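Margin note: ligand = guanosine-5'-monophosphate.
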Amino acid sequence: MKMSYDPNNIFAKILRGEIPCNKHDECDHTLAFFDIAPQAKTHILVITKGAYSDMADFSANASSGEQAAFITAIGRAAKLAGLEEGGYRIISNTGKDSHQEVPHLHMHILGGEPIGPLRAS
Ligand code: 5GP
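Resulting structure:
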């Protein structure tokens, strides 16, 4: 069952300017900023400005313009951070089995160093 969007989540507060972030990039539909607890040398979060709780919500309910802007923003943020040559990983945790902590759609971009296998063995 899908949970409704919680407007008090930490990324909604960042979007409203109620708490600061280390901004990396922005467009009409997205904001990119650096993760407060980086899991790699470079760890960027790309979020939607629209109120979507996760990828399930976004893929079902966002406009095609919002969806295109999100994908474009992820590639642009990685390029701006200089990650294209070395490569990078993108991850979007969705729902309880994924260990999603912040219930506002976000894509993690991890890179700047070798970041190992997809899952620790
Ligand atoms: P999730 O587990 O939901 O996929 O990832 C949430 C991410 O948000 C975590 O990597 C965490 O470090 C990051 N995070 C949580 N609170 C803040 C914050 O206030 N500012 C920033 N920049 N990142 C945050």
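The first helix runs from residue 10 to 15.
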